[in-house]
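DM from R.C. (forwarded with permission)

"hey, sorry to bug you on a friday — could you get me a structure for this? deadline for the figure draft is monday and I only need the backbone to look sensible"
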Amino acid sequence: MSSTESPSVSAASVLPRVAPVRVGEGERLRSVGLPGVTLSVRSRRPAREGLPPALYVHGLGGSSQNWSSLMAELDGVLDSEAVDLPGFGDSPPPDDGDYSVTGHARAVIRYLDAAGRGPVHLFGNSLGGAVTTRVAAVRPDLVRTLTLVSPALPELRIQRTAAPTALLGVPGVAALFTRLTKEWTAEQRVRGVMALCYGDPSRVSPEAFQHAVEELERRLQLPYFWDAMARSARGIVNAYTLGGQHGLWRQAERVLAPTLLIYGGRDQLVGFRMARRAARAFRDSRLLSLPDAGHVAMMEYPEVVATAFRELLTETEDAGADSGTGS
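My reply, with the result:
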């Protein structure tokens, strides 16, 4: 594994010059070269030595920045890192062009294996929830606990508001959408995304909104932006259709790690009704329902999510102590 710290795109020799990625106070960003993929990893300096490691995985169209508020809330609790999936955030596309859920999971596993930080407390949102579910199922040795915020697990009847996102995976639709919306400003696009993803968009501060606009403007300059979106959306749809041992619900049943499930009552992308099914599928689960939250509870209510995770951590540490194995 090769690693360099930089606030700019790591593959600058092959990518166009764009504005640097924003790095928040207390954060650093580094580029990690792995076989077939280069990943950008956002981290916070641990408050002290010996904190348990954690890795956070964002959703479709997101980036490691989606976890900044929660990572800050968990200072002193975890040694936190958040990854930009291939083709998102500051990570260039994967060499093989594989944006499937399995492809993204493979990238996460490669990073964890190379970093040697496992087992970690693994967090996933939306697409990242599907990815981390697969990681936890196939590599239980890498996962200490699993926290899923509105995970993209198969639904027989998706919400009407989620249909446009699924349609992005249809060949040609992303290109058509790009042409139809070429006059839209970054501000208009961000407002639309926030209206879709937040239970209450008014909770977004003007500063956070401006940061989101600047990040979208940066990413729209990348030639692979819409391809990464479309192929990853197609990957979710394909994962929904898989049956047998590769099906996501079957893999959820195989997860051994204690699991915290967080669902928002105003989520327009993942049905709130799926919460109880998920609680039944994951064998060692606990469910947090947030009636006013949307699709990104860790951004809307980071303090509530952090409290729930601390409770999970205490519970698992107590269980480990009782069994004589530790955490």
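R.C.: lifesaver. Residues 2-323 form a domain with the Rossmann fold fold (CATH 3.40.50.1820).
me: no worries. The longest helix spans residues 302-323.
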